[in-house]
Amino acid sequence: KLTAALEGSSCKISVDRVHDGVILISIDGHDVGEFGNAPMRLVDALMPDAGTAKLFIDARQALGVTVGVSSAWANWLARSCHRFSHVHMLTSSRQVGVSAGFVRRFTELQGQMYLYTDASAFERLLVQAAA
User: Which superkingdom does the taxonomy of this entry point to (predicted)?
Assistant: First the structure.
């Protein structure tokens, strides 16, 4: 398991390769963009050499995200979507859920990106993917 973490004044983001081809991003706090594109570079570094990966984004502890951050993730996912077989995102904040829905529509990932508010369903899929 490989892990990298970024910690700022209002947000913490960790990126873990929980299994070959399975990457987990965990977001805690309010992401105001202080990390720039560092989280995306961390994901890129953990991608498998060949094939696609399953990306899990655990944003249940995310309090909010700026429009700029949401746009940066959307642009990165639009460029990188061919590298992911599926993207699964767990949200608990209404604002983060709305942003995630925007990202899914903007990147045209409707058939690849799944949004969850049920933590147990998200965790079950993550465990299955990492097995």
Answer: Bacteria
Residue 99 confidence (pLDDT): 75
Reported as type and span, the H/E element at residue 87 is strand 84-91
Q: Residue 96's closest CA among 75, 117, 112?
A: 117
Q: For residues 131 and 128, give the distance between their C-alpha atoms in angstroms, rounded to a whole number.
A: 5
Domain CATH code at residue 28: 3.30.750.24
The answer to whether residue 6 sits within a structural domain is yes
pTM > 0.90: yes or no: no
Q: How do residues 75-114 score in pLDDT, each as one tens digit?
A: 898 888 889 999 999 988 777 777 777 677 667 666 788 8
Contact, 88 vs 77, CB < 8 A? no
Amino acid at 76: W
